[in-house]
Design a protein that fits this description.
This protein has 138 residues and is mostly beta strands. It contains no helices and nine strands. The strands form two sheets. Strands 1, 2, 5, 6, 7, 8 and 9 form a seven-stranded antiparallel sheet that branches.
């Protein structure tokens, strides 16, 4: 049996940019997108037997991005609600590819958690970015 080649690599080289310009100050450690999800409408009735039936709702929930970055004391943290314009996440280019995958949509800062201050630990800021529209693959 031939072995398969796994092309999934690490996230090293991934980038995130914001139209608002705060990107340059961020030394990003991780970008964690939420799953895309859609609610369900229960279509069960009195004659349904065994398992409920359902159909998907008309609209999906907008996604979020959880960003962790090294804290820089010269960096003024964005405030919750700050409009970021287009938020673009670009994935690393894998071997054999010439153009990396990227996703873009308008977004805003949903929440900010300033660093915990502890001896022997890096100061990490956490930002949650809320997309305001569907992601576009570019």
């Amino acid at each position: 049996m031939p072995q398969s080649t796994v092309l999934g690599d690490t996230g090293n080289g991934a980038t995130i940019t914001f139209a608002s310009g705060i990107t340059a100050a961020l030394k990003v450690r991780s970008i964690d997108p939420s799953p895309q999800s859609v609610g369900e409408i229960d279509t069960s009735h009195l004659g349904t037997v065994g398992t409920r039936t359902n159909i998907p709702e008309d609209l999906s929930d907008s996604q979020t991005l959880q960003i962790e970055a090294l804290w820089d004391t010269f960096f003024v943290a964005p405030v919750a609600g700050l409009a970021l314009g287009n938020v673009t996440v670009t994935y690393p280019t894998r071997p054999g590819e010439t153009t990396p995958a990227s996703y873009v949509a308008k977004g805003h800062v949903q929440s900010v958690k300033l660093p915990t201050l502890t001896n022997g630990q890096l100061q990490i800021i956490s930002l949650t970015i809320k997309y305001e529209e569907a992601l576009i693959h570019t």
